[in-house]
Design goal:
Elements lengths: L1 H10 L3 E5 L3 E6 L3 E7 L2 E4 L5 E4 L1 H4 L9 E4 L2 E2 L2 E2 L2 H15 L13 E6 L5 H13 L4 E6 H8 L10 E6 L4 E7 L2 E8 L3 H16 L1 E2 L2 H11 L10 E8 L5 E7 H25 L2 H10 L1 E4 L8 H9 L3 E3 L6 H10 L2 H7 E6 L1
Parallel strand pairs: 1-9, 9-10, 11-17, 17-18
Antiparallel strand pairs: 1-2, 2-3, 4-5, 4-6, 7-8, 10-19, 11-12, 12-13, 14-15, 15-16
Helix pairs in contact: 3-4, 5-11, 6-7, 6-8
Length: about 350
C-alpha cells in the first residue's frame, strides 16, 4: 500500500496541516510552508454561502452587517462546525494543490493533520472525515505535542525525556516524549483565546469598557506579559463605554495587562508542574539537563519563559519559530514514512 502511495506521491503534493483554533498553517512536501491564515470563515446567514476565508474573513470580525457573520469553525482545538470546516479545508487544500476537478489525472494529496492530544475518538473521526471530503487521498492524524517536538528538532526517538509545551489559540499541550512515544501528557483548553477573554473581562470590570476580540488580541501582543522584563509601557484601548453607550478610549499599562493575564498564566504553569510530578524520575533528570521547550503563539507572551523557569527551576528554551513548530513537524513526517507510521495516532483512512 505504501509503495503505491509513494508512487502517487511523486505526482501529488502531499500536505501537512496545523488545524489550529486561531490560525491554520499548511506545508507542502519539499516546498515548505505555503499558507498561514486565520481559522475564520465569513458566511451569509440566510443563504449559508461562504463569502471569505482566512485573512479576508479575519478583517470582517466584529465589523459585519446583520446578514453576514464571521465564525471560527474550531473551538478549543476541535471542530465545532463540521460543514464550514470542510469548506475551509477544501479551500486551503485546493490553494496549494491542483484542483482535481480541473486536473483529474493529478493524484489527490496525502494529508497529515495535527490534533490536540486530548480529543475524543469521535472528534478524531470528524477531522479525518472532513479532510477526506475536502479532497485528500488519505489522511493521517498526529498529536500536536508530538508534531511540535518533531518541528522543534527534539530527539523524540532517543531513550531520553524531552518535554514540550505548545501554547496555541484554543489548547495548551504539555507532553514528555521518549522513544518515539508520549510518556505523560495533558491537553488543557486554556490558551491564547482565554488570555484574550481575560483582557476583555478586565477592561469591563475595571473601566466599564466593552472591547472586541481583535482589540484584546492586539493589546496582548503589544504589551501583554507574564513576568516583568523591563520598562513598563502603555497602550490605548478603544471600545464602548457601558454607562453612556458612547465610544471611549483608555490608556492601560503593561502591568495592568499582566495582572489581567495572571490567572490564566498561573493555571498553565501549575499544569506543567503537575506533568513534571507525574514524570518517571529517570526522565525528569533528562528534562532537568535538557530543559523545557516552548512552542506555539502563546509562548511569545513576554516574560513567560522567564516566569516558567523561575517556577519550575528548569531552564526553558523558546523555539526559534514557535508559530510554525507544529506544521514543520507535520512536514517532516511527510518526508519520513517510517516516522509517520510510528507517531501517528490514527491514519490511512481513505
Amino acid at each position: 500500500m505504501f509503495l503505491i502511495d509513494d508512487f502517487l506521491g511523486i505526482f501529488s503534493h502531499d500536505i501537512g496541516i496545523d488545524l489550529g483554533t486561531a490560525n491554520t498553517l499548511v506545508t507542502v512536501k519539499n516546498k515548505g510552508i505555503l499558507i498561514r491564515e486565520p481559522t475564520v470563515v465569513a458566511i451569509h446567514k440566510k443563504t449559508k454561502q461562504i463569502l471569505a476565508i482566512g485573512n479576508e474573513a479575519k478583517k470582517m470580525v466584529g465589523k459585519t452587517p446583520a446578514l453576514i457573520v464571521a465564525v471560527r469553525p474550531l473551538k478549543d482545538g476541535v471542530i465545532s462546525d463540521f460543514d464550514v470546516t470542510e469548506e475551509m479545508l477544501r479551500y486551503f487544500i485546493n490553494k496549494v494543490h491542483f484542483n482535481p476537478s480541473r486536473f483529474p489525472k493529478i493524484p489527490r494529496p496525502r494529508v497529515v493533520v495535527s490534533i490536540p492530544s486530548g480529543v475524543t475518538e469521535v472528534e478524531r473521526r470528524a477531522v479525518q472525515t472532513a479532510t477526506l471530503r475536502s479532497g485528500a487521498r488519505e489522511t493521517y492524524l498526529i498529536e500536536e505535542p508530538m508534531a511540535a517536538a518533531i518541528g522543534c528538532g527534539l530527539p523524540i526517538e532517543e531513550p531520553q525525556g524531552s518535554m514540550i509545551v505548545d501554547i496555541g489559540g484554543g489548547t495548551t499541550e504539555i507532553a514528555v516524549i521518549s522513544l518515539g512515544g508520549i510518556v505523560v501528557n495533558r491537553s488543557i483548553r486554556i490558551a491564547g483565546d482565554e488570555m484574550d477573554a481575560d483582557i476583555i473581562s478586565y477592561a469591563r470590570s475595571r473601566y466599564n469598557l466593552l472591547i472586541g476580540e481583535r482589540t484584546a488580541e492586539s493589546v496582548k501582543i503589544k504589551i501583554g506579559g507574564a513576568y516583568p522584563t523591563g520598562e513598563e509601557t502603555k497602550e490605548t484601548l478603544a471600545g464602548r463605554d457601558l454607562a453612556s453607550g458612547l465610544p471611549s478610549k483608555i490608556l492601560v499599562s503593561s502591568g495592568e495587562i499582566r495582572e489581567a493575564l495572571s490567572s490564566t498564566v498561573r493555571t498553565i504553569v501549575e499544569e506543567i508542574k503537575d506533568i513534571i510530578e507525574a514524570t518517571p524520575p529517570e526522565l525528569v533528570s533528562d528534562i532537568l539537563e535538557n530543559g523545557i521547550t516552548l512552542s506555539g503563539g502563546g509562548s511569545l507572551l513576554r516574560g513567560l519563559s522567564e516566569f516558567l523557569a523561575k517556577e519550575t527551576k528548569i531552564k526553558v528554551i523558546l523555539d526559534d519559530d514557535p508559530l510554525t513548530s507544529v506544521v514543520r513537524g507535520s512536514g517532516k513526517v511527510l518526508e519520513n514514512i517510517e516516522l509517520l507510521k510510528k507517531v501517528r495516532v490514527s491514519g490511512g483512512l481513505r
